[in-house]
Structures are given as structure tokens and as C-alpha cells.
Amino acid sequence: MPSRKNLKKQINELTYEVVSDCFTYLTIHEEKNRQKVLDIITEMVKYRNELIHRVNNYDKIKTPKEIKSHYRKIKKDLLSAMDKSFLKLSKLSQK
What we know:
elongated; mainly alpha
């Protein structure tokens, strides 16, 4: 079974990267697009909480193969959400 502890660390670290970049953007651009950046942060934090919940609450009756698949899906969803958040932020910085 994959390490839930390591997966939760990865989720927290990658989420922090998005939030950190958003705060850096706010520091540099001050009031420009402030609400949109705060929305990205809020969305990422909510998604982080959802992913942690999914890691902690899995069906223990499933086979090891199904459990590994469950964790792979969580990792894939995390990377997808990060990519979307970074794309939104980069679109804001191009304006």
C-alpha cells in the first residue's frame, strides 16, 4: 500500500507552492486582480482539504490493486488541479 503520510506531504507541499506563487503575485502587483488571485487560493485550499479527506477515507475492504489505483487517481487529480491553478495565475500575469 502506498504511504499515506508521504502522499499527504506531497499534497501539502504542492498546494503551498500554488498559494505561495499567488501571494508573490499579490505582493508584486498589489491590487491588480486581487479578488481573482484570492479565488485561486480559496479554490486550491478547498481542493487540498478534499484530497486529504480522500486519502484518509478509503474503502479498506478493497483489494490492494484497487487501493493503489485510488491513490494514483488522487495524485493525478492533484497535478491536474495545480496545473489549472498555475494556468489561471499565468493568464492574470500576462494581462
